[in-house]
Amino acid sequence: xxxxxxxxxxxxxxxxxxxxxxxxxxxxxxxxxxxxxxxxxxxxxxxxxxxxxxxxxxxxxxxxxxxxxxxxxxxxxxxxxxxxxxxxxxxxxxxxxxxxxxxxxxxxxxxxxxxxxxxxxxxxxxxxxxxxxxxxxxxxxxxxxxxxxxxxxxxxxxxxxxxxxxxxxxxxxxxxxxxxxxxxxxxxxxxxxxxxxxxxxxxxxxxxxxxxxxxxxxxxxxxxxxxxxxxxxxxxxxxxxxxxxxxxxxxxxxxxxxxxx
Length: 261
What we know:
single chain; Rossmann fold
């Protein structure tokens, strides 16, 4: 991080010398975040389960990007994952982006305990394990950023996604309690709540359901879906010196959906 960048200068948004570990970074929103971080000067380590996907994304991102293949639901391996990420990036992880997730479209009555547990394992338990793994180093250095990718489903009642909405809502509590706990140690904790973003996961959820898709667009004042880079640019802000006095925030980036009618 640049020391005391001049107020109002472009450098206040710089992520130069930062190392960002981004879960689910090979596609969609995660890749959009990675692309914006690289543009801001950060080194990024993408984490996911599919190596060909990660390798292709890193080739597209350029020399500031590398990857580690890991199933983040193996929570006992979180400390080793952080060590591997620091090794391949040649520096300690200074930004953690808990972005990995999976979608489940089922009625609440049809959502089994196993379904619910699988969603919580990816979104909540894995994010908590990685947060635990990076916090000691961040606290020791007196600086760091932890960012969670929440969702509009945590703000509004969206049918058929009870497990997903519960997991994304859990981030609200994590962000607030963690930020209150570690702000005095130089670590900031925030979240972004994307609206409907044009990604593979969104297409799988909506393309087969035109009524639902039209409803999404109809209640978004901007009348369109966002791009992964819209989330990426907001993430750069929250992890940059420009947001040095911002912690404990859940920032909607949603084209106005959370306030639309």
